[in-house]
Amino acid sequence: MYEHGKIPIFVLVRKSVNIKTSDTDMITINDVAKAAGVSKGTVDRVLHNRGEVSSKSREKVLRVIEELGYKPNVYASMLASQKKRTICCVIPEYVEGDFWSLTAKACLRLEKLRPATVSL
After folding, report:
1. What is the pLDDT of residue 75?
2. What is the pLDDT of residue 78?
């Protein structure tokens, strides 16, 4: 603690870590691991509550997750899991040009982009 006049000044020295600061950049598991000083696998085990992780590492990872505002990317998780998902669109009868016709076109376009069965 240093004193500047009568006001005490506290200096906190912390290991600096390059973390994304842009609004468009998402915080990743790699960023959390780097900031917490643990492996990516340790962060994954803490997030999914599996495997053995020391309480010290678990607390460190959870603190960094909160500090950085880490939110899991649902889409990345779905892609990584390689599970097949079924999307069902129930669309009422429609007149060409209204909202539901656009929805039907989007569903059909989805079928072309990704092999799936689409029934309208």
Report:
1. 77
2. 74
